[in-house]
Amino acid sequence: MTAAWVFVCGPSGAGKDSVISSARQLLGERGDIVFARRMVTRDVHPGSDHDAVSEPDFLALLQAGGLCWQWQAHGFYYGIARHYADEVLAGRRVVVNGSRAHVMGLATSQERRVVEITAGPHLLARRLALRGRDAESAMTDRLARNTGLGAMQADCVIVNDMALAVAGQLLADYLAGLGPSTATQK
To answer: If both were cysteines, with which of 98, 129, 154, 174 could 116 make a disulfide (CB 3.0 to 4.6 Å apart)?
Structure first.
């Protein structure tokens, strides 16, 4: 088994939360794969998987060293609790629903893998509209961000324009097969 941080990234509307949830269910109670919960300074909405935290509490946690990863996106703070670093040190794979901009700024490491979940622009726009969480201008900004970030170096790419069960299985297979001899999957 290879210990690693596995950042699952992609544009808003790609279905990251859904694909991660599907993979989590498929993998069951495997002790070698841990799914990190994000802390976010926004309310919890249907379909999202994070712990809401106030901005002052988030900043206090950051100041106290309670986060191993943190970033800002879409006007919110996101963070991963420090205790997940202990899971990687213990030899586990920790799956993080991450930010493309944050991951693209990290140095390359054997302990860090990237899975990109994406979909075509029309499907992204439709999913954002169906989500009903953002104003029209915020959806436009999220979609425009996709072209401004540039290409991401990913170890595995899942184009989520298929049945959720298929995309979830692809992620579960990647997470379960991750090892020292795993070739780049695209």
So the answer is: 154
**Number of folded domains that form the chain:** 1
Residue 37 exposure: Cα atoms within 13 Å on the Cβ side: 8
Q: Whole-angstrom Cα distance, residue 50 to residue 41?
A: 10
Q: Is 24 a member of any domain?
A: yes
CATH number of the domain to which 87 belongs: 3.40.50.300
Domain that holds residue 9: 4-36+81-176
* Residue 165 resides in a domain: yes
Q: What's the whole-model pTM score?
A: 0.83
Over residues 123-179, the pLDDT tens digits come to 887 877 776 666 666 666 666 566 555 667 889 999 999 899 999 999 999 999 874
Dist CA 111 CA 130 (whole Å): 36
Q: Nearest to residue 80, comparing CAs of 93, 90, 66?
A: 66
